[in-house]
From TrEMBL:
Organism listed in the record: Schleiferilactobacillus perolens DSM 12744
Enzyme class: transferase
Function description: Catalyzes the ATP-dependent phosphorylation of fructose-l-phosphate to fructose-l,6-bisphosphate.
Catalytic activity reported: beta-D-fructose 1-phosphate + ATP = beta-D-fructose 1,6-bisphosphate + ADP + H(+); D-tagatofuranose 6-phosphate + ATP = D-tagatofuranose 1,6-bisphosphate + ADP + H(+)
Domain Carbohydrate kinase PfkB: 11-282
Full protein name: Tagatose-6-phosphate kinase
């Protein structure tokens, strides 16, 4: 079983417009409310790949009810902890380029946190727990550390998609995979990359610090996979980008979903790329047919 954790899910309010003028009234021809939150996106792709999974996290209030309805409609096996405060709304403005406004999230009480840990107690040996996204400001800074401690005590593996110090702190605990995008990787080391070799050298530092696999995504330029034995590269397949929100989550889901099936990092990389790009080419998180259509187009080369 794979468990996804979305401590701070959202309703994504996606506004499509030709251009936006700051400080003026803008009319928005196309607006949608979508279930958001990185772990939820991961669960959506795992469902498409028919990989059994359970989604954990916190949900509450009227916005939470909208989210719950969407989770039901998407057949997500949801064991979210219900909370008194309101799930957040994140605003995604697509006006040529994409601007994202991600809110801080709800207040979560000690009793609600304890209920979450009761749900997490279902994790057993051989499971993989995927931890994704930001923490609501009210949760303890070491919330993810506590999850990892419990998951490892149960004999399960974990993957983590977070940034900054939280990501660095998780590395000595040997995550199955970490998936920074190239900007996040550069920010981790307070640098900008001179070239691809420089990027790979920094990705390899995450491996040296403890990650089992490092997946560095580069949006339309594809991705690099670093394993203890090799470095692999693939361009992204070509297509018309409709919505790149959730592309990174989809890539992580494809990688972990395929890896738990065959333990083959190259095949997992291929699925990761197909899922990431299929989501970029879809209005919402990708469906199976779009993923399958891209799989034969993924060309992976061994570069080290
Ligand atoms: N414009 C795009 N064209 C094709 N594939 C894309 C595009 N944007 C994202 N992808 C796919 O999704 C993966 C993850 O995207 P990326 O934007 O790097 O992640 P994140 O959402 O975490 O920033 C990429 O490696 C690629 O496979
Ligand atoms: O938890 P965070 O970092 O605030 O991110 C939440 C946002 O991430 C998303 O899951 C999208 O993630 P990516 O585009 O980075 O893959 C949105 O659906 C959601 O609004």
């Amino acid at each position: 079983m794979i468990y996804t954790i979305t401590a701070n899910p959202a309703i994504d309010y996606v506004l499509q417009m030709n251009k936006m003028d700051l400080g003026a009234v803008n009319r928005v021809p196309d607006a949608q409310l979508l279930a958001g939150g990185k772990g939820i996106n991961v669960s959506q792709i795992l469902n498409q790949l028919k990989v059994p999974n359970t989604a954990l996290g916190f949900v509450g209030g009227e916005i939470g009810k909208i989210l719950e309805k969407q989770l039901t409609a998407k057949h997500i096996n949801d064991h979210f902890t219900r909370i008194a405060d309101q799930t957040r709304i994140n605003v995604k403005i697509k006006a040529g380029e994409e601007t994202e406004l991600n809110a801080a999230g709800p207040k979560i009480t000690a009793a609600e946190t304890a209920s979450f840990f009761q749900e997490l107690a279902a994790v057993t040996k051989g499971d993989v727990v995927i931890i994704s996204g930001s923490l609501p400001a009210s949760l303890a800074k070491d919330f993810y550390d506590e999850i990892i401690r419990r998951v490892q005590a149960a004999g399960a593996d974990f993957a983590i998609d977070t940034t900054g110090q939280q990501l660095l702190d998780s590395l000595p605990l040997h995550p199955l995979v970490v998936k920074p995008n190239h900007h996040e990787l550069a920010d981790l080391f307070h640098t900008t990359f001179k070239d691809e070799a420089d990027l790979i050298a920094h990705g390899q530092k995450l491996l040296a610090l403890g990650a089992q696999h490092v997946l560095v995504s580069m949006a339309g330029a594809g991705a690099i996979l670093i394993t203890p034995d090799h470095v692999y590269r693939s361009l992204a397949p070509k297509g018309k980008v409709k919505n790149s929100v959730g592309a990174g989550d989809s890539m992580l889901a494809g990688f972990v979903g395929a890896f738990t099936h065959q333990q083959d990092p190259v095949e997992a990389f291929q699925y990761g790329l197909a899922c990431g790009s299929a989501t970029a080419f879809s209005e919402d998180i990708a469906e199976r047919a779009a993923i399958d259509a891209l799989l034969p187009d993924i060309q992976i080369s061994t570069i080290q």
